[in-house]
Design brief:
The chain has one domain. The protein is mainly α and about 90 residues long. About 85% of the residues lie in helices and about 0% in strands. The chain is built from 2 helices and no strands.
């Protein structure tokens, strides 16, 4: 692979920062799902609200784990690009 040029290095930095922002969006979604699930569970004592809160609480760790997986996978791919361009 070709070496990174002077223009490519800031682009790679922007890509790394975009990856971090994407992970933070997954984290924010996880927190929102947890908060909404608990709020529905505690504040509304209706059967359908309990079902929705259980669904939200069950989906939240799935969202977090998927976000961690995507962040690490993309980070490894970007690191491989950086390392292959330095050779």
């Amino acid at each position: 692979m070709e070496k990174l040029t002077l223009r490519d290095k800031p682009a790679m930095d922007r890509t790394l920062l975009a990856n971090e922002r994407t992970f933070l969006a997954y984290l924010r979604t996880f927190i929102g799902l947890i908060g909404t699930g608990f709020a529905l569970w505690k504040l509304i004592d209706i059967f359908w609200a309990r079902i929705i809160s259980v669904i939200l609480l069950a989906a939240s760790p799935i969202v977090l784990l998927y976000g961690i997986y995507k962040y690490r996978k993309t980070g490894r791919e970007l690191q491989d690009i950086i390392e292959s361009s330095e050779e």
